[in-house]
């Protein structure tokens, strides 16, 4: 009774001490947790600001690049169409101004003169774009003061060239004061806003935002006079921006605290600043902190519940100790049953007597052995247990056991008592007596005949693969379970150091993919992921093949290559193994591409053929929800050209027609020769119907201007246009309706443009001969 009371008191003291330690641990944990969360949230806020800043930079560069490309496209169009009337040129300038948001369009003459679109002379600009145009250059200027209005502006400019001579140029002028909301941000649930500055602090663009503290032009002056940063801090910030550095700074204006991330915009000397109120970032910090604390409290409750279970378990310790004896007896019986039903043979070896007795039946059931085999080390071959050529291995392992050493497994060939080509794996573990001597040893004899057969077959497959890889650019094999590289050779150089494998990691995959073309990099790196290959192996897939582009070291030319991954089973461990090799297939791939190109193109004009254009237009219409159009074009009087001048001259006209179409439309528009003298053009994502009519009229005009030997006009063209989805959302419907419009144009006298569905108000563009 006293012993039981003493046990209860000790048990209670143990529980109280444990509870005190747990509470102390919880306090330290929560304190450390709050510190770590605060540090983590600071880093997360900075990283998120950097991401939002990158988005703002991308938005600015994308918009400015779009505007610059529109200016270059307009200049090229003016260069290719010198016969445009003054009225047509004015429309082109107005479209450019409206599309890009320019305040003004300026014209530059070849001698450096500056004019309005109405050809009124202007003072020489100081922005540098006039000189750039005269040198045949295009680009975007930095901010400068307009010589006309005195406002701060910057310009996009491009020359108009014919041949190698510069005949003038155009420039789009943007006013800095009007550049609001070109830079947009969506970070922190639209709680952040951005500025674009020059390195001297001049504000070029900014986001209109309710929380913005400053809407002026001199940001550094604002920081010096209206914030707590001070003159020295602002000067240091300005020096960093002059050195093109990026970073974070904080300031307080009144009661408003802001966090600012700044980085170069890679445009002139401009910088993008992304600003977020401290209250916004602090809300994220508190929200995540509360969420983490809630999860911690849940874990604490779970821990206390587990502690209660442990206390109850302590109270039953004595019963568990008693029950453990019964469990040990049960496990002993289970072990005996396991040995009895084992696929291998278990035996006992006594070094003192040099005798062997089987605990479980031999692996080969038809073989009869005595209960005890004596002089086993010297008569192993004579007894038929081991082949004569492996007798020394047999003696060695028994000798090491007698010396108290534990040898590793040894493979031996079966003796005459077994069938031919039988192999075993022999393992022995010493059992010591109380004096430390080896009283006996427990051993296993496992039949590995089938395993050896698999290994030989695997070795033969390895030889076959070695022959296959003799021309491989690279090869490697990976144990997908251990994620270990077993072999790796690139350009004939072995990557394994000292013949030892290394971890199959993301770093290894990046090294293998460092010469892969950027467009193919993610796809090939994804193919090489161990988890992906394991999933394919377990679903029964045994080979994967990918085509990609890569360069050789020291070369900048990309070659087509294939990466083939075979998924195998390693014979010894049974683990899935990935065996991969890369081959150079550049020549055969390019031949296939050339064949594919020739199957898609009309051999005379190089345009898409009829079969291919139908497929491409149908596919485009499936993904199209904006305005599109199908244009049918048919040459008038083409048969007379063949009859009068011959088919060779007719073919030349068709080629000229193809060049006219290619020059009049965008590079991504679909253009095809539909048969004979009939052509088709499909335009998608067009802003309005007038855009299509403008392009079609340009084609009609250029075809009508074609002459033979400079003496006479030789051909004209009739054009029918149908718009999608208004006139149809399939190729068949659009073709039918555009053909009806074409028939209408032919019926009205040819050399005209007609639109489907507007018969009463048909827009027929006629021109006198």
UniProtKB/TrEMBL annotation:
Segments traversing the membrane: 12-31, 292-314
Record-linked SMART domains: GGDEF
InterPro entries documented for this protein: DGC-Regulatory_Protein (IPR052163), GGDEF_dom (IPR000160), Nucleotide_cyclase (IPR029787), PAS-assoc_C (IPR000700), Rev_trsase/Diguanyl_cyclase (IPR043128)
Keyword line: Membrane, Transmembrane, Transmembrane helix
Superkingdom, natural source: Bacteria
Residue stretches making up the PAC domain: 403-460
Domain GGDEF: 626-758
Keyword tRNA processing found: no
Pfam families with a match to the protein in the record: GGDEF
Keyword Transport: no
PANTHER family recorded: DIGUANYLATE CYCLASE DGCT-RELATED (PTHR46663), GGDEF DOMAIN-CONTAINING PROTEIN (PTHR46663:SF2)
UniProt protein name: Diguanylate cyclase (GGDEF)-like protein
Organism of origin: Hungatella effluvii
């Amino acid at each position: 009774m006293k012993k039981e009371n003493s046990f209860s008191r000790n048990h209670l003291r143990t529980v109280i001490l444990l509870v005190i330690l747990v509470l102390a641990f919880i306090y330290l944990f929560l304190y450390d947790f709050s510190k770590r969360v605060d540090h983590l949230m600071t880093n997360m806020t900075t990283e998120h600001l950097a991401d939002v800043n990158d988005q703002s930079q991308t938005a600015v560069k994308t918009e400015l690049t779009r505007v610059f490309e529109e200016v270059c496209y307009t200049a090229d169009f003016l260069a290719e169409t010198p016969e445009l009337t003054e009225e047509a040129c004015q429309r082109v300038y107005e479209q450019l101004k409206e599309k890009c948001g320019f305040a003004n369009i300026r014209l530059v003459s070849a001698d450096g003169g500056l004019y309005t679109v109405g050809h009124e002379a202007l003072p020489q600009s100081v922005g540098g774009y006039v000189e750039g145009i005269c040198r045949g250059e295009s680009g975007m200027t930095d901010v400068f003061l307009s010589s006309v209005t005195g406002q701060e502006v910057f310009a996009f400019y491009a020359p108009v060239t014919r041949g190698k001579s510069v005949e003038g140029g155009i420039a789009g002028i943007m006013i800095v004061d009007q550049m609001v909301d070109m830079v947009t941000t969506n970070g922190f649930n639209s709680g952040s806003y951005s500025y674009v500055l020059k390195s001297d602090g001049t504000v070029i663009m900014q986001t209109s935002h309710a929380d913005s503290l400053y809407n002026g032009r001199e940001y550094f002056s604002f920081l010096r006079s209206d914030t707590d940063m001070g003159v020295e801090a602002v000067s240091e910030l300005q020096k960093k921006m002059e050195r093109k550095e990026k970073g974070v700074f904080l300031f307080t204006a009144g009661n408003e605290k802001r966090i600012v991330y700044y980085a170069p915009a890679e445009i002139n000397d401009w910088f993008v600043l992304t600003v977020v109120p401290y209250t916004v970032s602090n809300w994220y910090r508190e929200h995540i902190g509360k969420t983490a604390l809630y999860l911690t409290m849940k874990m604490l409750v779970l821990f206390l519940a587990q502690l209660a279970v442990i206390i109850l378990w302590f109270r039953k310790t004595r019963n568990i100790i008693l029950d453990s004896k019964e469990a040990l007896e049960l496990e002993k019986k289970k072990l005996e049953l396991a040995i009895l039903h084992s696929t291998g043979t278990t035996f006992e070896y006594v070094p003192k007597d040099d005798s062997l007795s089987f605990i479980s039946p031999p692996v080969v059931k038809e073989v009869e052995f005595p209960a005890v085999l004596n002089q086993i080390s010297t008569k192993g071959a004579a007894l038929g247990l081991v082949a004569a050529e492996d007798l020394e291995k047999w003696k060695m392992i028994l000798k090491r056991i007698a010396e108290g050493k534990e040898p590793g497994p040894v493979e031996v060939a079966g003796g005459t008592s077994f069938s031919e080509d039988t192999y075993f794996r022999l393992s022995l573990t010493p059992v010591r007596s109380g004096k430390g001597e080896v009283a006996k040893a427990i051993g296993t004899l496992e039949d590995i005949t089938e395993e050896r057969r698999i290994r030989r077959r695997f070795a033969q497959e390895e030889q076959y693969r070695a022959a296959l890889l003799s021309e491989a650019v690279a090869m490697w094999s990976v144990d997908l379970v251990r994620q270990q590289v077993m072999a790796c050779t690139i350009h004939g150089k072995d990557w394994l150091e000292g013949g030892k494998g290394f971890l199959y990691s993301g770093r290894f995959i990046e090294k293998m993919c460092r010469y892969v073309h950027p467009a193919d990099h993610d796809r090939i790196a994804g193919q090489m992921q161990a988890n992906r290959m394991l999933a394919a192996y377990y679903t029964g897939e045994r080979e994967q093949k990918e085509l990609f582009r890569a360069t050789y070291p020291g070369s900048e030319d990309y070659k087509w290559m294939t990466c083939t991954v075979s998924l195998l089973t390693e014979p010894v461990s049974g683990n899935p193994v990935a065996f991969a090799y890369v081959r150079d297939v550049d020549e055969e791939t390019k031949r296939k591409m050339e064949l594919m190109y020739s199957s898609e193109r009309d051999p005379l004009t190089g345009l898409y053929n009829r079969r291919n254009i139908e497929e491409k237009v149908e596919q485009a219409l499936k993904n199209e929800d904006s305005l599109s159009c199908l244009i049918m074009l048919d040459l008038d009087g083409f048969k007379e050209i063949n009859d009068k001048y011959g088919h060779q001259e007719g073919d030349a006209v068709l080629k000229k027609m193809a060049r006219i179409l290619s020059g009049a439309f965008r590079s991504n528009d679909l253009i095809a020769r539909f048969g004979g003298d009939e052509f088709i053009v499909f335009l998608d994502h067009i802003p309005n119907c007038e855009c299509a009519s403008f392009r079609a009229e340009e084609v009609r005009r250029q075809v009508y201007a074609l002459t033979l030997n400079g003496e006479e006009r030789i051909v004209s063209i009739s054009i029918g246009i149908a718009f999608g989805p208004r006139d149809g959302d399939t190729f068949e419907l659009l073709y039918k309706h555009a053909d009806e419009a074409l028939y209408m144009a032919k019926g009205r006298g040819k050399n005209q443009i007609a639109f489907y569905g507007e018969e009463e108000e048909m827009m027929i563009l006629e021109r006198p001969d």
